[in-house]
Specification:
heterotrimer; A mainly alpha (about 325); B mainly alpha (about 290); C alpha/beta (about 400); A: about 325 residues; mainly alpha; 15 helices; B: mainly alpha; two-stranded antiparallel sheet
Chain lengths: ~325, ~290, ~400
């Protein structure tokens, strides 16, 4: 067992950093903000940690801390700028932001190493250290998923108008979610970079966005647990599918497609549904009444993402008005 | 003058690619992320056939168009339709279609990468490119074809959507699908038809571009998707005329940036444009206005 | 709500537990203690090498090439009993698939396998740079092919069996001077580190030394597909030469558009265009020249012999990636012979010793700068169907 642990320590660590990356987006999705800015924060955090270590002679922890903080600040400011956008528009604006970070990195000359990126930023990072950090993050997130705070955030996501009328400050929570997603993203970037000892502009790209998104979609976007499930699957997939390693990308694509079609709430959603059914069938037996069939905490990524009105189309149930100028 | 021509040609390339995506998105609301893979794989199939014998240009284009249409229809039938069926409302469906498209896109990409070892591939064709030196500027026959195809198809689709019965039906679906269904519009078949056309356009773009560039790599399709995003955002979600104009605006700005020797900032143009447009005028130049939410 | 909380935690625990179990049982097994190097000071009968490089992904051509070249070398070594009668060298190939984490974890696993005494590392620069510190820490001699950036050859246990492009690019500059091509325009992919460095740092001084003026530097991106603008710019400026620093697909398009724009001057490219990679460009690439570290057109006996053996086994002509793999394995073999020790330390010492002396490989007379290979380099002309030596 110890042997396995040692030879797979890299994969275990990668699972944790992928989890952080996915969480940086999941945190936004929880409050209904369809933002990928966390990935941009990954790039900012990674670069600053690498620069900090190689050019400013910082130690591991301060370097990562600077990266995480910078991520938080930049994404928070971004949130102030574009926070009013919703749905797909917001998603695209944040993707654009992420890709602009990459362009800045390439054109950053000596500071960012240009196209070659930065090498030699080897941090003093252990699996246990990373696990500790992730544990803290997860504990804090669990706190936001339970109790009255959890319900408030759910309302902000599901029905912002209702939330406002209940006195919950939707804008404030949204802004905070930007900052938190930037913090986690920057943290993920810093840790990943100092573990690998290198970062290049190529890494901050659309594929990273896609990776984080698919991790959440397949795993389940309702809670950090879903992100964990997703991370485990996608990091360990090549190992499990070793025998078809040549077709790995294809299997990846098929899995994602199947998840999109059949698992709207991700694997976590399936597990939750099963538990619910088991629970409610017990309750039914015990009390002879029909149990609840909607779990307010289980959300599908789709419901998070797009409130009504994107593209001028209204969902059929709402009579919201839109003026349409046809092509 | 030559610069104008270059920008126009680049714009036609972008337009050909973005047309299919904008069509599906603007009418039946399908944001098909697999559009890039469809584009690339259609050209790839033409490449495979052309390994056996040199294809005349029309045949190469035909093979590509049919492949593209097939792929898009298959995607619609096996992925998108089931998603729509299983979704409670359109907004839920939209995101799942997005993810599903991403998943589907990986499949042709993986196959092509496997078979080419990620090396570029071209189409072996009997068509010979001819270059005309017209004093003020030079024009190659392929560029001319791309220009005509892009502008012609673009205008054609715009007018067709506006004037024809099917076009009207499509736009009705885009506005309010339930009412449209109530009016007797067969959404299922129109959707399939639209996706077939969108896929065919992707295939056409794929073949033309491969011939013009002499070779493309399996990753080329994905690179163009981001440009298509920029174009559609710029022109406005849901507007074909917007996509038309957006293509040429993006191409012009990129050409100018390249000319100013700022080659490594070209991508910043696309992304910056997306960002600024979304900031200042999210509905783009000609898009439909949207209710701002809380 | 408490039920939900419990339910969630149980679900999480179950999932994680199951995954862990599956991986633990399915995944790595503890290493067997097969015959390893006879602890310090002798050449074992069975020498196991490892390779972690890109067999799939965007640079698969480099990894597969190296793998093929290595195979030829190993066969020769075994057949000729170079390391002694009955000594068998074998190699364990693992795919890093262009993923950093994959490369790192496979390298870690391989290094944890005590039977493996030397490793051929990833061809992609970033993966190589990521595993280099690990290699140093674990003290397993690793020879990288390609991986031309800095941060790869960082210590005693990291070696590179490929001369970075800038170390033999002077051949291009000298050839241009000899041909009287005294002014040129550079078109380069600014997002690709090797090309960016060539254009910004390495070529300008070479040009100056050889009396070449760089009248313009046009930067493009990796995803630039249309080069009509730059092509016409160049056609109008009409320099004597154009230095093309683009990747494979881009070069094909660029050369075509360059000729379409009416430019008739000399195009000078890089080894990326080698081994027929530029064939899709058709007539537009006729007469293209480029410096490379290996070509089947080379006439020195070792190169010819290698090309022959390669063709016999794989039914096609070798590219420079194959030559790099071939020479890297021979470097290791010579290292073992020199130190007389096939343990990890022994190989490390041997590699260093051979590097100090240099040797004759398929790529010509190989010398070394520290642990980094240097080749004489050769100028190749592409005549539209085959490579020939440039005059």
């Amino acid at each position: 067992m110890i042997d396995w642990y040692n030879s797979n320590s890299v994969l275990l660590q990668t699972t944790l950093t992928t989890l952080l990356l996915a969480l940086s987006i999941q945190v936004s999705m929880r409050v209904g903000v369809f933002s990928f800015a966390g990935i941009g924060a990954f790039g900012i955090g990674g670069y600053l940690a690498a620069i900090g270590m190689t050019k400013w002679q910082l130690e591991t922890i301060p370097a990562i801390a600077i990266g995480a903080l910078a991520g938080a600040v930049v994404v928070f400011l971004l949130g102030l700028l574009i926070g009013k956008l919703t749905g797909l528009y917001l998603g695209m604006a944040t993707i654009a932001f992420t890709l602009i970070v990459a362009v800045l990195a390439i054109n950053g000359g000596e500071l960012t190493g240009g196209a070659s990126g930065i090498f030699g930023a080897l941090g003093d990072i252990t699996l246990e250290g990373v696990a500790l950090v992730v544990l803290v993050v997860v504990a804090l997130l669990t706190f936001t998923e339970l109790g009255s705070l959890g319900r408030q955030l759910d309302t902000v996501r599901e029905d912002p108008e209702l939330a406002n009328s209940l006195g919950i400050s939707v804008t404030r929570y949204r802004r905070i979610s930007f900052a938190v997603s930037g913090l986690i993203g920057g943290l993920a970037g810093g840790i990943t970079t100092l573990t690998r000892s290198t970062i290049t502009p190529e890494e901050v790209n659309f594929h990273l966005v896609v990776l984080a998104l698919t991790v959440i979609v397949v795993g389940g976007s309702g809670s950090w647990v879903g992100a964990l499930i997703g991370s485990i699957i996608f990091v360990w997939l090549p190992t499990w599918l070793d025998f078809v390693s040549e077709w790995e990308e294809l299997i990846y694509g098929v899995l994602v497609t199947l998840a999109a079609i059949f698992l709207p709430k991700g694997i976590l959603g399936v597990i939750r549904d099963l538990i619910h059914r088991w629970q409610s069938s017990r309750a039914k037996k015990a009390a002879g009444v029909i149990g609840p069939d909607q779990d307010p905490h289980s959300i599908s990524i789709a419901e998070t993402a797009l409130p009504a009105g994107v593209g001028g189309r209204t969902p059929n149930r709402r009579p919201a008005s839109t003026t349409k100028e046809e092509s | 003058m030559q610069d104008v021509l270059n920008a126009a040609q680049l714009g036609s390339v972008y337009l050909l690619f973005a047309l299919g995506m904008a069509l599906a998105w603007g009418t039946i609301g399908i944001l098909n992320f697999a559009h890039g893979a469809t584009f690339m794989f259609s050209a790839f199939v033409a490449h495979l056939v052309s390994q056996a014998f040199a294809l005349p240009l029309p045949l190469a284009l035909l093979i590509s168009v049919l492949t593209g249409a097939l792929i898009s229809v298959a995607t619609q039938v096996f992925a998108f339709q089931p998603i729509i069926h299983r979704s409670r409302n359109i907004t839920t469906a939209e995101t799942r279609i997005l993810i599903g498209g991403i998943g589907v896109a990986s499949i042709p990409l993986a196959i092509a990468q496997r078979m080419t070892h990620s090396a570029p591939f071209g189409i072996n064709t009997t068509y010979q490119d001819v270059v005309w030196d017209l004093g003020l500027f030079r024009l190659s026959s392929t560029s001319l074809i791309v220009l005509i195809a892009g502008i012609g198809l673009g205008l054609g689709i715009i007018f067709w959507l506006r004037r024809s019965k099917q076009g009207l039906a499509l736009r009705a679906i885009g506005v309010d699908s339930e009412t449209a269904a109530g009016m007797g519009i067969n959404q299922f078949f129109l959707s399939i038809g639209t996706m077939a056309v969108a896929g065919g356009l992707a295939g056409l773009a794929g073949a033309l571009l491969t011939i013009q560039l002499r070779a493309i790599a399996p990753e080329t399709g994905d690179q163009l998707i981001i440009k298509a995003f920029a174009i559609i955002v710029l022109g406005g979600l849901g507007s074909m005329t917007g996509a038309f104009i957006g293509s040429f605006i993006l191409a012009t700005v990129e050409t100018l940036v390249l000319k100013a020797n700022l080659g490594s900032w070209v991508d910043a143009v696309s992304f910056g444009l997306i960002f600024i447009v979304l900031l200042l005028r999210p509905q783009g130049i000609l898009g439909r206005k949207e209710v701002r939410r809380t | 709500m408490k039920n939900q909380k419990i339910g969630r935690i149980v679900a999480a625990a179950l999932t994680i537990g199951t995954m862990a179990l599956v991986t633990a049982c399915g995944g790595g097994s503890s290493t067997s203690s097969a015959s390893t190097a006879a602890g310090g000071g002798a050449i074992a009968q069975e020498i196991k090498l490892g390779a972690v490089h890109d067999l799939t992904g965007p640079v698969a051509y480099a990894g597969v090439g190296a793998k093929n070249g290595a195979e030829i070398a190993i066969q020769e070594i075994n057949d000729s009993a170079f390391l002694g009668q009955g000594v068998k060298v074998s190699i364990d190939e693992v795919d890093s698939a262009f993923e950093i984490e994959r490369a790192t974890s496979e390298m870690t696993k391989m290094m944890g396998n005590k039977d493996i005494v030397a490793i051929i590392g990833p061809a992609a620069s970033q993966q190589a740079a990521a595993v280099a510190p690990l290699v140093e820490r674990q003290k397993v001699p690793t020879v990288f092919t390609q991986a031309g950036s800095s941060g790869v050859v960082i210590g005693d246990y990291t070696f590179r069996g490929t001369a970075p492009m800038e170390t033999y690019y002077h051949r291009a500059a000298e050839w241009m001077k000899a041909q009287g091509l005294t002014d040129t325009v550079i078109v380069y992919n600014a997002q690709f580190p090797t090309f960016a460095q060539l254009a910004d740092t390495h070529f300008p001084p070479l040009a100056q030394q050889n009396g070449i003026t760089i009248s313009n530097k046009i930067a493009v991106q990796t995803n630039t597909q249309d080069f009509t603008g730059p092509a016409q710019q160049i056609a109008q400026a009409n320099p004597k030469a154009v230095n093309v620093l683009l990747n494979a697909a881009q070069s094909v398009t660029f050369l075509n558009q360059l000729r379409q724009a009416g430019y008739t001057g000399q195009a000078v490219a890089t080894s990326v265009q080698g081994a027929g990679n530029i064939a899709p460009a058709g007539d537009a690439a006729k007469g293209l020249v480029y410096p490379t570290d290996f070509s089947y057109a080379q006439t020195d006996p070792k190169a010819v012999a290698f090309a022959k053996a390669y063709q016999a086994k794989f039914n096609k002509l070798p590219d420079n990636y194959a030559a790099e793999g071939y020479d890297s394995i021979w470097w290791i073999a010579r290292g073992i012979k020199a130190s007389g020790d096939s343990s990890r330390q022994g190989i490390q010492k041997g590699l260093k010793q051979v590097a100090g002396e240099g040797f004759e490989g398929a790529m010509g007379k190989l010398t070394f700068e520290g642990n980094d290979m240097r080749v004489p380099g050769v100028m190749i002309k592409w005549d539209g169907t085959a490579e020939t030596l440039a005059p």
